[in-house]
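Good day; I would like, with your permission, to put a structural problem before you. A protein sequence and the structure tokens that stand for its backbone fold form the material at issue. The record follows directly beneath this note:
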Amino acid sequence: MGLIKKYFMPNDYVKSVFEIDIEKLAKAGFKGIITDLDNTLVGWDVKSPTIEVKEWFKKANDLGITITIVSNNNEERVSSFSKDLNVDFIFKARKPMGKAFKKAIKHMQIQPKETIVIGDQMLTDVFGGNRNGLYTIMVVPVKRTDGFITKFNRIIERRLLNYFKNKGYIKWEEN
């Protein structure tokens, strides 16, 4: 189970992005965040950033942390959401493949060790970040509803989460 832990267990787990201590991460030397969009920042059906999301992005920016939104969703969805935040984005990222993660890191002009990946899915965000040597933070999905492929991923994810929880590796509480 060593490889499963290495690739699928997040470095940290929080209920939402708003519980992430950005100041602590900045002090620890992190300079960039690659964040998922749907069910990480807002529900998949929320078109624009909320006031809380805008404030969270501003706080990160004020602390010298650059954020890039990396999503498997289409250009129209990711572009219109990112435009309101004035941040770079990558759409149709094909996570967990590494190309989008590497592209975001290069564009932010930082090193992998200075990069955090935030997302709500173990099989895309956490796996993709871990296999590229990045610090991963998993959040509880904002909404309980998902698309077909994500529903399948959640079945596997629940089994992995239960395994990590039973081993005492993480404390996981569903909403």
